[in-house]
Specification:
By secondary structure, the protein is of the alpha/beta class. It is built from 20 helices and 19 strands. The strands form 7 sheets. A 5-stranded mixed beta sheet has the order 3-2-4-15-7. A 4-stranded mixed beta sheet has the order 9-12-8-13. Strands 1-18 form a two-stranded parallel ribbon. A hairpin with a 2-residue loop joins strand 5 and strand 6. This is Extracellular solute-binding protein.
């Protein structure tokens, strides 16, 4: 997905909240989250995840690994493999619900890429593409389709978005794909078998594989910088948080409208937290969970963010919408980005990118780097499809999950050669204006239905690609994962979005100077009593049941 997913796309996908299910009024009430997660956890422990069978494609110039290191290509492979023997469709119409976070795709009738996609799939592939206009757009359409019963063949379930009564919804309206994908069964779909095991965990609900995982890079957020900005202080190398603050003050130049950090305060607190050693979401010790909000390390990070704000290092307009332009101009020093979208930025903008690898904020601190989930949800198949159609639809998603180094991925990312892209003298792929208007805009909503494993390829920027591969290796040395990943808490799905928003709003007010630092602990108690403690119990029960 690195080719298509923008920063706004990832942040939007990760931030949708409050999705309710309007089509379940006739179903019995859902049990408590603890009951659901406890039984589901035991079933999940017995479940065989899809077998992992690496695809045989052009070898990467710099190899990836199962820990999350992305395969890196310094140039586009000349010899491509064909991963799908024939068009997977049966000539019928296929419907899908998905979303885009960029310019809407041109209508199918005026879109050469989409028309070619239909030919290659062997079907009329009709996507209902919800254009992101704030968090309610996709939720509203999803709810309407669930309530009206007009459920498409393929439906994207966003990750951790507060979807209510997920097990009931899936049981009532979508196929259990376990028989088709568990263990060796997935080998009927080689591109799906090539998806990382970690990614499949997010498609498991109560011991059943409920959809095709939408693979996404396993690296988490990253502190991206313009290296030229930091040259006057000897580069972006720091011995402590106070050293970072001192160098930031030295670089700050308000007269020239030059600031150190973008104004996404909560994202920065997350980065500072890694310097102090805060956990990724939750910390598991002796079977007991502690949320990062509750840790001394995270609260130290918040206090440090207050110092950064008082020093004036944040861009003064909290609604800054031109972050990348400011970075390219050298008037902004650093911003927080999801790693896959950082690859998009590195491909799109021409300035000397760098990364701040987490360092010890103070003596004795153990810096950590928080990994991502490795997916952005899963795509479920409507129960309206009979057994043969399910197999056909899985074949279609197998095509959409083609890996880099295949003919299918070349087309999916770039369109038709000579129309949407051309090859440079060095063999790199260069999009045409038509490619940017059709291929890129149509490939994004496709990538939310199924996608191949993450990879690094930056046309004409082989040195930067190699550097990014190296930064990933450094980050992996101190990596950590959220211990609740792959576990289900009903309270988390229903309450976490609103609780997280309240906590974030409190932190924003504190950093902006509207509330004192002491307000944090009061809000933390509200978080615990409002659902945090119940989430903890449900996750602990799920973890204990595995």
């Amino acid at each position: 997905m690195s080719t298509n997913l923008s920063r706004r796309g990832f942040m939007g996908a990760a931030g949708i909240a409050g999705l309710t299910v309007a089509g379940l009024t006739t179903l019995s009430a859902c049990g408590s989250g603890a009951t659901v997660s406890k039984g589901g956890s035991k079933a999940s422990a017995r479940l065989k995840l899809p077998a992992y069978v690496p695809a045989q494609t052009a070898p990467a110039d710099l190899a990836g690994n199962a820990a999350g290191l992305d395969a890196t290509y310094l140039r586009y492979p000349k010899a491509l493999t064909k991963s799908v023997a024939k068009a997977p469709g049966d000539g019928s119409r296929i419907t899908a619900l998905t979303e885009t976070f960029t310019t809407p795709a041109p209508p199918q009738a005026k879109n050469a890429y989409w028309q070619e996609l239909n030919k290659r799939l062997g079907a009329q592939f009709d996507m209902t593409i919800v254009v992101d206009q704030g968090v309610d757009a996709y939720l509203t359409k999803f709810n309407a389709m669930m309530a009206g019963g007009d459920i498409p063949d393929l439906v994207w379930f966003p990750p951790n978005q507060g979807i209510q009564r997920v097990p009931e919804l899936l049981d009532a309206k979508f196929h259990d794909l376990t028989p088709h994908l568990s263990g060796d069964a997935v080998k009927d779909y080689p591109n799906l078998a090539n998806l990382p095991t970690t990614a499949w965990k997010t498609a498991v609900v109560n011991g059943k594989i409920r959809g095709v995982t939408v693979a996404y890079g396993s690296m988490g957020q990253v502190y991206a910088i313009n290296q030229d900005f930091w040259k006057p202080v000897g580069g972006a190398e720091f011995s402590s948080a106070e050293d970072f603050l001192a160098k930031g003050k030295e670089l700050l130049d308000t007269k020239r409208n030059k600031y150190v950090l973008e104004p996404a305060y909560v994202n920065h607190i997350g980065m500072f937290g890694q310097w102090f050693g805060a956990p990724s979401g939750w910390r598991l010790e002796g079977g007991k969970l502690t949320h990062m909000y509750e840790t001394e390390e995270y609260q130290e990070a918040l206090a440090f963010a207050v110092k950064v704000a008082k020093a004036g290092l944040f861009w003064p307009d909290p609604n800054l919408s031109t972050t990348m332009e400011k970075m390219a101009q050298g008037t902004l020093g650093a911003y927080v980005q999801s790693f896959p979208s950082f690859l998009v930025d590195a491909k799109t903008y021409d300035f000397p990118f760098g990364v701040i690898v987490p360092f010890a904020a103070k003596a004795g601190a153990k810096p950590r780097y928080s990994m991502g989930y490795g997916s952005v949800g899963y795509t479920a198949i409507s129960k309206k499809a009979d057994a043969e159609r399910v197999k056909m639809l899985l074949g279609v998603m197998d095509y959409l999950a083609a890996p880099f180094g295949t003919e299918e991925r070349l087309f999916l990312d770039n369109g038709i050669e000579g129309t949407h892209f051309n090859r440079t003298s060095g063999g790199d792929v260069k999009l045409t204006p038509k490619g940017n208007s059709e291929a890129v805009t149509t490939a994004m909503p496709l990538a939310f239905l199924a996608a191949g494993p993450e990879y690094i390829y930056l046309p004409g920027k082989s040195e930067l690609a190699g550097n990014i591969h190296g930064w990933q290796q450094e980050l992996l040395k101190i990596s950590q994962t959220n211990p609740t990943s792959g576990h289900f808490s009903d309270t988390s799905t229903s309450k976490s979005p609103s609780l997280t928003t309240a906590m974030s709003d409190c932190q924003l007010d504190i950093v902006a100077g509207r509330k004192p630092l002491s307000a944090y602990k009061e809000q933390l108690q509200k978080w615990r009593s409002g659902g945090g403690d119940k989430m903890r119990a449900e996750f602990e029960a799920s973890i204990a049941g595995r």
